[in-house]
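Revision sheet: structure tokens.
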Amino acid sequence: MPRRAPSLFRSILTGYAWIVVLLATGISILVNTSFRSAFRERALEDLTRSACALVPAVRTTVSDSTDFALDSLVSEAAFLMGTRITVIDRNGLVLADSEKDPELMENHRTRVEVMTALNGASGQSVRFSRTLGRDMLYTAVPVVCDDSVTAVVRTSMFFDSYSAALGSIVNRILLVVLVVMMAAVFTGWLISRRIARPMSDLADVADRVRKGELGARAAPGHTREHNSLAFSLNETLAKNQQLISELTRSNNRSSAILKSMIEGVAVISSDRSVLLLNDSFRELFSRQNTETVLPSEVADLFSDTEPASAGTIEYSGRIIAYSRAEVESSGDLVFSFRDVTGEVRLSQMKKSFVTNVSHELRTPLTAIKGYAETLKDDAEGDDAGYLEIILRNTNRLIALVKDIQILSEVESGSGSLKKEKVFVAEVLETVVPLFRQRAKNKHIALNVVAETETLAVSADRYRIEQVFVNLIDNALKYTQSGSVEINISRQNDFAVFTVSDTGCGIPPEAIPRLFERFFVVNRSRSRKLGGTGLGLAITKHIIEAHRGTVSVSSTPGEGSVFRFTLPLA
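Predicted:
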């Protein structure tokens, strides 16, 4: 379990207390050291003055060479001054001492203060006395007689006698420092509380929001920084609350939309796990609300790394159409499913019906045409006109049946494409002559413009001939004068063909429906010209079966341009 971090108040107060303690300790050490040093210097100065005061008397006594007088002088002076006094000759021998028998004392020539005094200067030293077993302060001054140092007067005292007075003063100072430190810590407590409390309030607001209380807001504080932070936090919380509300409404709308959709919807993550299934999906594939196991047909589709953007699958004897879209930001996939079993069967029935009807109509129509032609040979007057009408409409019916059969074959794929390398020039050499005489009779120029004679496409030759026949036939039908031009060019990996005319043109509103079955722009003209309304629909299906494209552009009164592409061989 991670260690809980300390509060801001505790961190500030702890840091402040450490600073106060360190400062108090440093001040105490500095005061104690400074006072000890000052007291020691003052004591050494007093001892030096005491020693200097004894020099004249010691000089006289040493000159008289009376040991008894010297001992008496030292004892009396030591009693009066409260110090220890020692007289040492120039050889380091102790001549007199206020506390010890000189005979029992060792040579003092090597003492630091004595050596300094023998050199003619005042000497000072602080050290432990082995004789008395205590820390001592020593000062020594030379006794000069006839310009030479004849003896040394050394005064000393116990340093702990000063330490007692120093300790009393230091204790008072430490007491003051302690009081000041406690006052400083209390002040630090107040300051820390004042700093940490607003931050604690802000943290409390954030915690309430985290727990779901979206309306929580921070109160203003006593500082500019706190007010600025509280204002920014409140503004951010207000925006987040608004955003969450909008997201909630959007999510509710999305849920309602998914529930109301007839199509089954499934959302799949980038790692192919199921994120969402709507009610229609579960109903379509007989899944319970809590059931997560998917049908194998759907599971295989979801697990496919590159599923088609649209297609169909079979499930329980039904045909299910699906389409797919990818969410670019996350890589998730959205699938929609729809039961098209009825539509597919109806389409198959329609195709079967059209095929059967057209097949059954060809025989009686052929018979009617044959008998009408026979009767026409011997008919005269009005009878011949009636038979002409019968023959014209019979031919229209035969052409219509033939076009229906071709369209059914193309749509169903029963007449599979027999692709081969087809030279376009050879196709046009076969097709164009079929229309030369007709164009000549109408005084229309029929031209072929090709960039190259060797352009070849991968196609079914028979079907491509049908495309050219349909387009050239339409161009000649609806052109009364001018020209019809077939243009052949190359663009990347495709051959581009255009059939343009200078005919009556096509109204803009009719162009989107031009390739629909049985659609004609002008029914009376189409009936007069023998059109069935299936030629362009057949053309479109043939070109798309070859993975090409077809389009049309037209200006009424000026002509039309049909453009289609085929992949190069």
